[in-house]
Amino acid sequence: MTRVYYKEAVGAFVVFDVSRGSTFEAVLKWKSDLDSKVHLPNGSPIPAVLLANKCDQKKDSAQNLPQMDQFCKEHGFTGWFETSAKDNINIDEAARFLVENILACHQSFANEEKDVGTIKLDQEAAKAESRSQCC
């Protein structure tokens, strides 16, 4: 079912709750699922930013900074932010960071504007047409 949600995604947030360790344990499952189902046109994974949400509930979260940087590097996250949706902490910064990374990865956006009036066929459609028995 997640393939439907990921369809045509160009970036993602993976969010865990700092007050519930089990949500952090699921981060790699979500990242793996995302990477297996959606890619950039060149085949590389889409930019994914890790959000450590509910930072307003954690007093000594700054101690985990070096470990989180290393974790993100090892597992292919573009970066990470401590956030609080409740208190609006780092929400705009995280969104801006993700958008900047999406734009950096998609240098082809300028080329797509030139193709506005054209029809693009995906590889599966082209293969299906080549197998057609019609005259």
Automatic annotation (TrEMBL):
SUPFAM superfamilies: P-loop containing nucleoside triphosphate hydrolases. InterPro entries: P-loop_NTPase (IPR027417), Small_GTPase (IPR001806). SMART domains: RAB. Pfam families: Ras. Gene3D superfamilies: P-loop containing nucleotide triphosphate hydrolases (3.40.50.300). It comes from the Eukaryota. Keywords: GTP-binding, Nucleotide-binding. Belongs to the small GTPase superfamily. Rab family. This is Ras-related protein Rab-32-like. It comes from Galeopterus variegatus (Malayan flying lemur).
